[in-house]
From TrEMBL:
It catalyses: L-threonine = 2-oxobutanoate + NH4(+). Residues 17-303 form the Tryptophan synthase beta chain-like PALP domain. This is threonine ammonia-lyase. GO terms for molecular function: ATP binding; L-serine ammonia-lyase activity; magnesium ion binding; pyridoxal phosphate binding; serine racemase activity; threonine deaminase activity; threonine racemase activity. It is an enzyme of class 4 (lyase). InterPro entries: Ser/Thr_deHydtase_PyrdxlP-BS, TrpB-like_PALP, TrpB-like_PALP_sf. Catalyzes the anaerobic formation of alpha-ketobutyrate and ammonia from threonine in a two-step reaction. The first step involved a dehydration of threonine and a production of enamine intermediates (aminocrotonate), which tautomerizes to its imine form (iminobutyrate). Both intermediates are unstable and short-lived. The second step is the nonenzymatic hydrolysis of the enamine/imine intermediates to form 2-ketobutyrate and free ammonia. In the low water environment of the cell, the second step is accelerated by RidA. Its cofactor is Ca(2+); Mg(2+); Mn(2+); pyridoxal 5'-phosphate.
């Protein structure tokens, strides 16, 4: 299992490629939630999401091992991150994306000189294809979440939260395959086990909640239906799941309407464009999914890569809007 020392080493390895993202605060959001709400703003990260942390940690290691080609499977954010860092390190990259991939994310992959291949609509379809490409071209597959280097890289988010928000009580994190959550859990729980860490999934993508309830990894179908495209996984990872079992305090679900409302609220009141996957954490706070009790709460905003052509479909009118 990944340890705190691995996260600390990852931080030193990726420091030149990754930003320390700011903490944002909204008086209106805090008032609405009856708590001190802070946003850990990974939507302002290089490539627009937290994914650059784990991808950089893994691809740097690949470079040291002499790898000449990398492949990844991604709904967009991980693919952008792998393409970006691979391009910086002069390693060719191919990203396997779903057929319904966010257009802006695909365009960004191409801007970073990554090749794009479309395959299916779920991670269960695109991951085998990316592994096949890596084998065919004698390269390396860069997993989206289920690898120690990926988990350790994502865990640097947790280190920053502890340093930026003094006496934080609760951290709310979106869960897809579990890379961000498991890394954050290791960083926070091994430094301060008193901090409560809560995961959020869409009701249309509850694979981790079901797996935790059953005590074993349990895949679900239909996760591609949620607007939270960044966390459309069919099951948690084999490496991430035991970490969640060990450390996670609670996991809650949010509806599609709640995600839309939270995304719209942050855009209207805070002037921040965040993607639906990020809005799940804000939705959990806004719609009383978690007992916050006037605490200091950090909602991890995992990314901000939104297809602007579909933006109107994602936004709704909020209270007090004209």
């Amino acid at each position: 299992m990944v340890q705190l020392e691995d996260v600390l080493r990852a931080r030193g390895r990726i420091v030149d490629s990754v930003k320390t993202t700011p903490i944002l605060k909204s008086r209106q959001l805090s008032k609405r939630c009856e708590a001190q709400i802070f946003l850990k703003s990974e939507h302002l990260q290089t490539t627009g999401s937290f994914k650059i942390r784990g991808a950089t940690n893994r691809v740097i290691q690949a470079k040291k091992e002499g790898v000449k080609f990398v492949a990844a499977a991604s709904s967009g954010n991980h693919g952008q991150a792998v393409a970006y860092i691979a391009n910086n390190l002069e390693i060719p990259a191919t990203i396997v994306v779903p057929t319904d991939a966010n257009e802006s994310k695909v365009n960004a992959i191409k801007e970073y000189r990554g090749s794009v291949e479309y395959c299916g609509t779920t991670s269960a379809e695109r991951i085998p294809r990316a592994k096949e490409l890596a084998e065919e071209l004698d390269g390396m597959f860069i997993p989206p979440y289920d690898h120690p280097d990926i988990i350790a890289g994502q865990g640097t988010v947790g280190l920053e939260i502890l340093e930026q928000v003094e006496d934080v009580d609760t951290v709310i994190v979106p869960i897809g395959g579990g890379g961000l959550m498991s890394g954050t859990l290791i960083a926070i729980k091994e430094k301060n086990p008193n901090v409560r860490v809560i995961g959020v999934e869409p009701e249309l993508g509850y694979d981790t909640k079901l797996s935790l309830e059953r005590g074993e990894i349990t895949p679900v179908e239909g996760t591609h239906l949620t607007i939270a495209d960044g966390i459309r996984t069919t099951q948690p990872g084999t490496l991430t799941f035991p970490i969640l079992q060990k450390y996670l305090d609670e996991l809650v679900l949010v509806t599609e309407d709640e995600i839309r409302y939270a995304m719209s609220f942050v855009m209207e009141r805070m002037k921040q464009l965040i993607e639906p996957s990020s809005a799940t954490t804000v939705a959990a706070a806004m719609f009383d999914k978690v007992n916050l009790n006037h605490e200091k709460v950090v909602c991890v905003i995992s990314g901000g890569n939104v297809d602007l052509q579909k933006l109107s479909e994602l936004l709704v009118k909020t209270e007090g809007s004209n």
